[in-house]
Amino acid sequence: PTIRYSFNEDTLPEDLVGAYRIDPRTHNFVWSDGPLAYAIRTGGTFVADEMNLSPPEVLKRFYSVFTDRYLQLLEGDSTVIRAGDGFNFVATQNPAEGFEGRKNLPREIQKYFATVYIDPYPVDELVEILSGLHPHLQRELIELAVRFNMSVEQLVTTRKLGARDLERYHFNIRNLNRLAARLNNDSHGLPELVDIYFRPFRTADDRKQLETLIREHFSEIDGTAAGVFAVPEDLESITHDSTIEIHIDSQKHCVDIGRSHLQCDPTVNDAEFQNRLIASFDDFPPVSSARPVLEAMARAVEHCENVLLECEADVEPEDYVHFFADLQGKDMAVITLSRGMHTADVLGGLKPAGSGGDAVEWVDGPLTTAVRRGDYILLKGLEAAGPELVEKLNMMLDDARALVLPPESGENTPLQLKESARIFALKYFRNQRSTPSISRAFRNRFSAIVVRPIVDAESLREIVAARLGLNEDDANRSIFEAMVSFHLFIRERSARREIGSGNIQPYQFGLTNLRRWCEHIRRSLHAGTVDDRQAMDLLVRGAGVAYLNEISDPPERERMAAALLKLMEGIEPAELARQFQVQSKKKIIKERSDFKRIWWDQKEHWRKAHTGKFKPKLEGRELKRGIEINTPETGGQMKEGPDAWYGSDTQGNKGQGEPGAGGGAWGYRTEELYREFLKKRRALWEYNMGVTLEDFKDTFEAEIQRVTIDFDRLLDPQVDITRRYMPQGSRIDARRYLAYLNGKGDGRVFDRTTVNVDEDRLKGVEIIFAVNKGRRIFNFEYSIATLVAIMSCSIILQGHELPFGVCGYSDLTNMKTAIDLSWFKKLEEDFDNAREEELFYGLARDWHGDTVPEFQLLDDMAESFSPDARTRILVIVSDFRGSRAKVTFEKDLNNEETYRLKETVERLSNRGVILLGVGVGARAISDYVFTESLQVGGENFANLPALMAGRVTELIHKHHNAAVL
Predict the structure, then answer these.
(1) Nearest CA among 734, 765, 503, 925 for reference residue 14
(2) Is 379 helix (H, G, I), strand (E, B) or coil?
(3) Among 207, 603, 736, 897, which is least packed, fewest CB within 10 Å?
């Protein structure tokens, strides 16, 4: 057998070895093997999934398994079990590079494994795998999908997609498998492509880039693929199509939402099925604005996919999930995760049982109970829970669809999800880098859908009518319109900071506020305490409860109240009370509803794809003659190179057709364009990079983000597992309970083991970066690599609230009378947008100064650390060749300035300053001078950002101890 176990940060030895459990027949404690012990006994294959997530201190418990293939049951009776025939230990780990800074297994553990790096699947292998999984699909369609998926992942990896987004994305064979499962050779497959690749992105720039990529891949195809991947003129319209219809077959108990087909419970009678529909549509009316999301969710539910809903804080995504649970008559288990929760709180554990609490039994947690019953499962608070809890769910969310219970449950085999079960998860957008989020590998296990707020007036009116249980007729319409208008009005004013401008955070008003207003009105009318004269007061009071009372500034509150009264002018709220008395609490489905007992035949609605043929834009004007630029630097007679301009960027002929002696094709410019081109040139003697911060970000943001992602998690707070046993609690430790029953232990039998996150672990760390800005060592590669490295480190350190400073030094006047030490960012300053701009231009300009010997500056830099600093790290970037470089490497080493620099470094090291010398150039003087050094030359210049971030992180872990004052 193959036994898989997902490791995480709170994995304990007994999770793998085993534990005592209750025998249901004798009610005595018996030993139950854990997954590793069971695999060793039976000669199975044990798969340690993402083993590197577990602390090395825990993994060292299993040295005997790695080296001698045996395990001693220290948690039990200390017997030794030898590996049976066929036993294998297979471990997996994602690389540290590109996967949120996962830490690799330490060498003292990894050396016992034959390590194999698995390359990404090439195109032909992916096509072969998917063809085997989905033989009904034509190979042409699969190959198109594979190449598109690889292009999307390439854009994500290079940060051309998601560059302005703090979330992290990943597209691999899981996405391809979902797409292939949805496709047919004769159906329109582009909406499926949009669901899987387009909907997860929240920014307009990302969606626009994805639309361009889709058109590049699918606009010029023919044959069967042209019909399946026909690209419409407006691709974005697919994601907010308000014309999606809902069709119901009450006899077959089927519901179609757009292109999705849901088979509801066929065992119930027609009346019960209809009651379910009425209840679900009453609680969450499927208004036009919500239908695109409902359709995408329904397709995922139809194909047994996990669904992740992401939204802003003023959106209520739970309503969409409850809609499907009610529609299909499924119980919903809501699992709310949070920081500090123990996995036993979710999975279950040994707990007191019986009326008098005189027995101990295994009690399922809420997640285990839901899996056993086959419920719909809703996971909330993913961004709040720690990875040690979230990643326990990996196996349940992938193809295995199983949950591994701890040994004390007595179940050695994983608990399988039922076929009818579905898993939903909710997550709010990550708007700050310091806010935790899920990993991209975890996100990839879901079909992610961005849920936008409902802001169109018609949809909001339908929601108000449904919440009040009234018809949207002429008598009530004016009241509904006034309520919706005020909701949109106060929402817009808060977004524009016309109210709440004095607050740090803006007010946010969403559908929850509108519903609270409706609920206040409905309850008051239902109680019968409101007469015709009090109806207007009821509307105003309800608005105060739902909106106005949240506003802290009295003048702003009064202004919004006045706006409400203005919107209410001319309406008769008394009619609202009379209508409610007539209809009581009844909520009706209106005749003009979109529920039709018909089936939508896609073949009847099929239309030819938009071919994307070019429409000439020429206006009959004479073609302009341009100036021929025939130099190698500007492209000349070549169609390659950065200066071979194409398309509408060329002036004169709008980039179309053959040029009439210039103006429209490569190699030609108008005089105006030529002058603009010359403005971009920069003389070398200025010793400036000649680029703006915006240009720099456009070019190097992908590299900065890559380094940030790789090293960001390495500085995350340490997870400490603390063993505690108390006389009160909710989880029983079986071994201590046995000792207590035999009179050999005290009453502290409750396991209160805690998983602590040491948020102050990095307190007291301060870092200063010093850059030699002398003109001798200025070259484009060096300066750019240094700039990217320091910008990357700045983002990482600011994200963890670590104080850092950046300075540059040289002799700017070249007079040998003074040394210019310029601070671009001081230790006590926050790294905001203004400081980022100052840091960038400080490092990008003024490289014309003379080089100076570093030993004259180090003492001044060391004095810049604050008195509260416990770990002081000084990073110097230079060639360390002094004010005058020597001819040979030996002469540089024997130079007086080098000797004095080494003495200064040793003296500061003895004072507790950690110095990192980052040497640039071919001569590794830094290795001779500094105990901690890093050398970059012509071959590894491009890796300087990752190398520097890695060494700084390593020094923090190596030298910092927050407990030492």
Answers:
(1) 734
(2) strand
(3) 603
Instruction: Report the b/e string of 514-534 with b at 16+ CB within 10 A.
Output: bbbbbebbbebbeeeebeeee
Give the residue from 143, 727, 169, 757 showing the smallest Cα distance to 445.
169
**In this structure, what are the phi and psi dihedrals at residue 733, rounded to the nearest 5 degrees?**
-90, 115
Q: How far apart are CA 189 and CA 715, in angstroms?
A: 43
Cβ pair 784, 804 in contact under 8 A: no
Q: Lowest mean pLDDT: which of 480-489, 876-885, 933-942, 950-959?
A: 933-942
Q: Which amino acid is at 453?
A: P
Asked if 307 and 446 count as a contact pair (C-beta separation under 8 A), the reply is yes
Q: Are 781 and 814 in contact (CB under 8 A)?
A: no
Q: Which residues pair with 21 in a beta bridge?
A: 30
3-class SS at 168? coil
Residue 745 confidence class, pLDDT cut points 50, 70, 90: low
The DSSP-derived string for 814-875 is -SSS--EEEEEE-TTS---HHHHHHHHHHHHS---BBP--GGGTHHHHHTTS-TT-SEEEEE
Going by DSSP bridges, is the β-strand pair 627-628/668-669 parallel, antiparallel, or unpaired?
A: antiparallel
- Please name the residues in contact with 324: beta carbons below 8 A apart, sequence gap of 6 or more: 297, 298, 301, 330, 376, 422
Task: Tell me the pTM.
Answer: 0.68
Under DSSP, the state recorded for 472 is -
Distance separating alpha carbons of residues 609 and 222, to the nearest angstrom = 10
The 10s digit of each residue's pLDDT in 781-813 is: 677 778 888 888 888 788 778 899 999 998 887
Residue of 754, 751, 755 whose CA lies nearest to 726: 751
In this prediction, residue 12 has a pLDDT band, given cuts at 50, 70 and 90, of confident
Do the beta carbons of residue 629 and residue 661 sit within 8 Å? no
Question: Residue 709 has what pLDDT?
Answer: 58
Question: What 3-state class would DSSP assign to 590?
Answer: coil
pLDDT digits (tens, 9 = 90+) for 144-183: 999 999 999 989 888 788 877 878 888 999 999 999 999 8
Residue 494 to residues 389, 453, 502, Cα–Cα distance (Å):
36, 15, 11
Please state which of the ranges 253-267, 407-421, 578-592, 684-698 shows the lowest mean pLDDT: 578-592
Assess contact for 929 and 898: CB atoms under 8 A. yes
**341 Cβ partners below 8 Å, 6+ apart?**
385, 389
- 652: pLDDT strictly greater than 70: no
Side chain identity, residue 756: N
How far is the C-alpha of 37 from the C-alpha of 176, rounded, in Å? 36
Q: Is 351:357 a contact under the CB 8 Å cutoff?
A: no
Q: Say if residues 95 and 102 touch (Cβ distance below 8 Å).
A: yes
Q: How far apart are the C-alpha atoms of 493 and 457, rounded to whole Å?
A: 16
Q: How far apart (Å, rounded) are the C-alpha atoms in residues 41 and 36?
A: 9
Residue environment code for 729-753, b if the CB has 16+ CB neighbours within 10 A, otherwise e: bebbbbbbbeebeeeeeeebbbbbb
| CA-to-CA dists, residue 700 to 615, 697, 705, 836, angstroms | 36, 5, 9, 15
| 223 secondary structure, DSSP code | T
Q: What is the largest CA-CA distance in the chain?
A: 105
Cβ-Cβ contacts under 8 Å for 336 (sequence gap 6 or more): 380, 381
pLDDT tens-digit series, residues 201-250: 988 889 999 999 999 888 878 777 887 888 887 787 788 887 888 888 88
Listed residue (910, 887, 885) closest to 898, CA to CA = 885
